[in-house]
Design brief:
With 242 residues, the protein is α/β, with parallel strands linked by helices. Helix content is 31%, strand content 17%. The protein folds into two domains: 150 residues, 3-Layer(aba) Sandwich (Alpha/beta knot); 69 residues, tRNA(m1g37)methyltransferase, domain 2 (Trp Operon Repressor, Chain A). It is built from seven helices and ten strands. β5, α3 and β6 form a beta-alpha-beta unit. It is elongated and about 70 Å long. The two termini are 43 Å apart.
């Protein structure tokens, strides 16, 4: 997977890309990250990438010409998506991360700054993605989140891929509680069932805990999961004939 980050602050990514599983994935060439600075594509002596908005208003907007030039300078892989990191975009979810990791070989992430984008920059993007209903100082944090979330789903990044299938949101439910040694800590004990060695009972307990935790903490997810459980998608291989 190739990630192209269009950013005015490439140094922002230096430390995160050199840490943990993300660093290992890059070292093992599971993914690669290339930062491109729109400032390098300016033509004036001050290398300006922003200007005042037409019609007046507070703040500055990113100019379209350096952003277009930066994106157009990149190689284009056959399966490419150009993503604008924007609070107006669709929410970033586990399902979306899974789609991006499976369906694309190149993701171009445009990081905004200042008061926002010149509206014409949106013509570059094939989709817009948001971390949530809030505004940050720039698009670098959302872009890093997306790079991290997609990369960890790529084959070879996580040693035990089975863990990806049971974590929160992978099945539409939150994850169950987990414990390790010691068996008792400051009056809190590991549930007896987890020490029983009865794998069927453990599996049942974990499922019950997933249901309880999701219903209690995320009633919206619980309602969605219930609807899907009651109306599972049709089997595309089934013809309906006897």
């Amino acid at each position: 997977m190739r990630f192209d980050l269009i950013t005015l602050f490439p140094d922002f990514f230096t430390s995160p890309l050199q840490s943990g599983l993300l660093a290992k994935a890059l070292q093992n060439q599971i993914a690669e990250v290339i930062c491109t600075n729109p400032r390098d594509f300016t033509t004036d002596k001050h290398h300006r990438v922003d200007d005042e908005p037409y019609g007046g208003g507070v703040g500055m907007l990113l100019k379209p010409d350096p952003i277009f030039a930066a994106v157009e300078s990149l190689p284009c892989l056959p399966r490419r998506d150009i993503i604008l990191m924007s609070p107006q975009g669709e929410p970033l979810t586990h399902q979306l991360l899974t789609t991006l990791s499976h369906d694309y070989d190149q993701l171009v992430l445009i990081c905004g700054h200042y008061e926002g984008f010149d509206e014409r920059i949106r013509h570059l993007a094939t989709r817009e993605i948001s971390l949530g209903d809030f505004v940050l100082t720039g698009g670098e944090i959302p872009a890093l989140t997306l790079v991290n979330g997609v990369t960890r789903l790529l084959p070879g990044t996580v040693g035990k891929t089975e863990s990806l299938k049971t974590e929160s949101f992978a099945t539409g439910l939150l994850d169950y509680p987990q414990y390790t040694r010691p068996a008792s800590f400051r009056g809190w004990d590991v549930p007896e069932v987890l020490r029983s060695g009865n794998h069927a009972a453990i599996a049942q307990w974990r499922t019950e805990q997933q249901h309880h935790r999701t219903r209690q903490r995320r009633p919206d997810l619980w309602a969605t999961w219930q609807r899907q459980a009651q109306n599972p998608p049709a089997d595309p291989d089934s013809s309906g004939s006897p």
